[in-house]
Design goal:
- The protein is an alpha+beta fold.
- It has 2 domains: about 35 residues; about 40 residues, no CATH class.
- Helix content is about 40%, strand content about 20%.
- It is built from 1 helix and 3 strands.
- It has a 3-stranded antiparallel sheet.
- The mean pLDDT is about 95.
């Protein structure tokens, strides 16, 4: 493996943590500004208010299990 490939893999391995941190920071910023956020929780889309209240909005279908490497065609 070349040095460039190793660096590329290193950067890719950091993406999940970095994206999780960015998402958490954005969510906290929105709640701090007095707005609500939507999230999926226990099979429902839920509105979370800055004071911590939660309002169930609608049920969602369960996640589709996927085997890594599987290709899906969207029609």
């Amino acid at each position: 493996m070349t040095e460039q490939e190793r660096q590329h893999q290193d950067l890719e391995s950091r993406l999940p943590l970095a994206s999780g941190e960015a998402f958490s920071a954005a969510r906290a910023q929105v709640l701090a500004s007095g707005q609500s956020v939507l999230q999926s929780e226990d099979g429902f889309i839920v509105r979370v208010f800055p004071d911590g209240r939660k309002q169930k909005l609608k049920p969602v279908e369960p996640p589709t299990p996927v085997i890594p490497g599987t290709t899906f065609t969207i029609r």
